[in-house]
Amino acid sequence: MSILTVTLNPAIDISYPLEAFHLNTVNRVAQVGKTAGGKGLNVSRVLKDLGADVLATGFADDILGAEIVENLKSEGIDSRFTKISGKTRNCIAILHEGQQTEILEKGPRILREEAEGFIDNFKAMLAKVEAIAISGSLPDGLQETFYSDLIAIANKQEKTVVLDCSGSALEAVLKNPHNPSVIKPNLEELTDLLGKEVTLENIKESLQDRLFDGIEWIVVSLGKEGAFAKVSDEFYRVKIPKIDVVNPVGSGDATVAGLVYGISQNETVENTLKGANVCGMLNAQEAKTGHINRTNYQALFDQLKVEKI
Ligand code: ATP
């Protein structure tokens, strides 16, 4: 059995390392890095690193989208994207003087027939997977209820859904009766959602807001401070040791991979929370976004503490 990852707005992530970035003139780049990007694809890679069987899906065109499919294939990740007539996007990160300037294309508009085609593909793929990770924003053209529709279909087949999105896409899901099994907001996303500042002091009461009724796992990632979670009616604090960090971008996606992996392996709540944090930490220790080296997995795992609050 495998895990399905959903990335509706994937990208070719381009990085341009420059010694200095000059505005209003030509900047030449010798070393260009290009990878398949998008939060769900980071989740896919980390799942693969964990040894899971992964199937990646979303929307892709036949140029950059085809490149993404090839890139995933070269990493041993199967995919089944729905073809679109719009153009799959590029996202550019200019790395200069220790800073990062990003130019992120919005991405293509999805047509109604394409959205319907995706739903048909999704239904067909569900039979082959036991859990689903849905990540990132909704592309233009899709209804706000699109994620809720996917969750409703998955719930009908009793598949676990881990949802990692923010803003209006998350709000639309939370206002809908079809609940994902897991959400993974950070404090900033919770603050946006609840319209009041959420801190470690008021997190317990914040997670009891009626908006979250029916969601079994709420895992709030706290960067270098670890995580706080509500699972059923219990609260947990995950404490992590200080580590040397190389690049923490994508650590939240690695955490999602750890959560969906742990739950699909029927791990205990404590071990799932620990494993998810270890994935986030291992991602932060790698230069490549959405990648972990499992060599240090157990050593880190043994240093984590999960306390019931
Ligand atoms: P992103 O959007 O960049 O993926 P996020 O806000 O969703 O990030 P974070 O809370 O930053 O997610 O990170 C997820 C997990 O990764 C944390 O709960 C923690 O376990 C680990 N992590 C992230 N940053 C660090 C760090 N600087 N040191 C140690 N662990 C980290």
Automatic annotation (TrEMBL):
Carbohydrate kinase PfkB domain residues are: 8-292
Q: Which family does it belong to?
A: Belongs to the carbohydrate kinase PfkB family. LacC subfamily. Belongs to the carbohydrate kinase pfkB family.
Substrates-to-products reaction catalysed? D-tagatofuranose 6-phosphate + ATP = D-tagatofuranose 1,6-bisphosphate + ADP + H(+)
Q: Identify the Gene3D superfamilies for this entry.
A: 3.40.1190.20
A GO BP entry is: small molecule metabolic process
GO cellular component terms, alphabetically, are: cytosol
Query: What organism is this sequence from?
Result: Lactococcus formosensis
Lineage runs: Bacteria, Bacillati, Bacillota, Bacilli, Lactobacillales
Per the UniProt record, which EC number(s) apply here? Answer: 2.7.1.144
Name the InterPro entries on file.
Carboh/pur_kinase_PfkB_CS, LacC, PfkB_dom, Ribokinase-like, Tagatose/fructose_Pkinase
| Keyword vocabulary terms for this entry | ATP-binding, Kinase, Lactose metabolism, Nucleotide-binding, Transferase
Q: What is this protein called?
A: Tagatose-6-phosphate kinase
Q: In which pathway does it act?
A: Carbohydrate metabolism; D-tagatose 6-phosphate degradation; D-glyceraldehyde 3-phosphate and glycerone phosphate from D-tagatose 6-phosphate: step 1/2
Gene Ontology molecular function terms on file: ATP binding; phosphofructokinase activity; tagatose-6-phosphate kinase activity
Pfam families xrefs: PfkB
